[in-house]
Design brief:
alpha/beta; 21 strands; single chain
Length: 569
Amino acid sequence: MTRNRLGGTAFTALLIAALVAAGCARQRYDLILRGGTIYDGSGGPPFVADLAVTGDRIAAIGDLSEARAATEIDVKGLAVAPGFINMMSWANESLIEDGRSMSDIKQGITLEVMGEGNSMGPLNEAMKERMRAAQGDIKYEIEWTTLGEYLEYLERRGVSPNVASFIGAATPRVYVLGYEDRAPTPEELETMRGLVRQAMEEGALGVASSLVYPPGFFAKTEELIALARVAAEYGGLYVSHLRSEGEQLIEAVEEFLTIVRQAGVRGEIYHLKAAGKDNWAKFDRVIEMIEKARAEGLEVTADIYTYPAGATGLDSSMPPWAQEGGFEKFIERLKNPAIRRRIAREMRQSRRGWENMYLQAGSPDRILLVGFKNEKLKPLTGKTLAEIARMRGKSPEETAMDLIIEDDSRIGAIYFSQSEDNVRKAVRLPWVSFCTDSASVAAEGVFLKSNPHPRAYGSFARLLAKYVREEKLIPLEEAIRRMAALPAEVLRLDGRGMLRNGYYADIVVFDPERIQDHATWEKPHQYATGVVHVFVNGGHVIKNGEHTGAKPGRVVRGPGWKGRPGGGG
């Protein structure tokens, strides 16, 4: 008979180890994704492993062959990545109409970040009335007042992705000053700062300006510094559609860097670009300026969409002075023969002092009209301004003014004004993340009444298909870092942007060899393919490429949120 030589302490240790091993074998999770290629968001090399989810969090990553789950999915041969973050989304209204977020969720986007220039709160009664009058195909009741209330409204209605927002810099300006082209008094500026402070404490990510369009155009640098300082107090970000992306691009970048320095705030440039062929060569200088500022210690980043054309209103072809006082005043001016002649002249000739997108496009043949409010004008959707002008026998400038009057709206337009080579340069930059700069729409229902920019359906898929797989500009692990971890870091979001134990289970599973955008300028309502599964807060939203109807999205708040210590989430 062999005597047991183990002492009490050693025997106890072995017993504990055996019990732990048995416990692991019996470990049960809600979900296990088995055998996928894990791209954790760090930018490091991928590895094959299982990933487990319990509730709304990632519970384990590794060899989980002995573990079991209520749902187990074989994802061998597929990429498993953190959910993608859309750094600049216009899903404000589209998520009210359809919370499924079809065009974005099918690209793997699990967080929509809104608020460029204007945000959905805070609102006063006059602002609510203007919002009601401006509604197009999507109609809705305005059941909120503050920005935080709007985000909570979306969550209550049910949305598939998570949602977050900046407070638009023009929103407190309109709240206090209306659409006047003047500087605020010290008292008015302090009221505006108070509105920013309230939004930050409700979870806004920071302050976002859009300095091309009135009334944001009317804000001077000092005003923007004052608002950005409030965001900085709460750890927020100042993000900006620059005052110029064309003739005065260099000066606009200098203004942006001045605001960041003097406000002591982190900064992001929206949809970094050089617009207008004469300005394309300035893009290298802009990169130098930003990298010099970063080397000096400024926390400055940028985002892009992956197309050489932008989309905004047809009214952006017209000088800002004509739009002072709001849309009704603008229409009055467009009906005045003398003012019309001046507007037409400036559209054709004026290059400095405002962003003349009409000239940047190079020709009215390069301005595509895609979004009308008036049912009688909807047959013009997809035609260029030049085509419509020829149909009507008028100049393009006169036609543009007539259309805005008839449609009683800005009219959605696509401007072909950028360089594909510059898009490639931006894709390579390690401090650039990505956006759609679009609503999140569906290829059905009310959304078919107008045409979006193809980026609504394809911006992220195009990055992975064209620039990563086909052109090999950056490796896949770097692209995923910049679609997830980088924006989460820039926005100071806790527990998002990476695949790590304890992080929220925002996960996209896709086939790197099959992911593809399909939307075109002529036929934009086409979903991307290749995304197999999407999970948001652990909820299974895309299953085998199809939407499940699940709406587990939540409000994601910035670092200044007063709902809990440290904000975030």
